[in-house]
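User: Sorry, folds how?
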Amino acid sequence: MNIAAHPTHPQHCFCHIEIDKLEKWFVKHYVENVSTLELLNSTTDPNEKEAICVVAMFELDEKSMLEMMGDVNLPEHHIIHCREHFKKELEWRINSN
């Protein structure tokens, strides 16, 4: 399956979405082991769907992530840096609770 063919592409970087919203979906996906598809089907809100897709970017290789984030109007190095920063931040939040 071509990743770029998926209908839900983020238009915002990790840093443009509230950390609490990312944390909500991060917990559901990575802690509660709910699949991305199940999460996408659980809401009709396009902003929530985008946050779910952004959270799913944590598990992709860099090339695939950048392909999916192609609609984000920021340099690749910014997106890569943000992904690492927010992944570490979310993991820290989860582990400190």
Summary: Residues 11-95 form one domain. The chain has five helices and no strands. The radius of gyration is 13 Å.
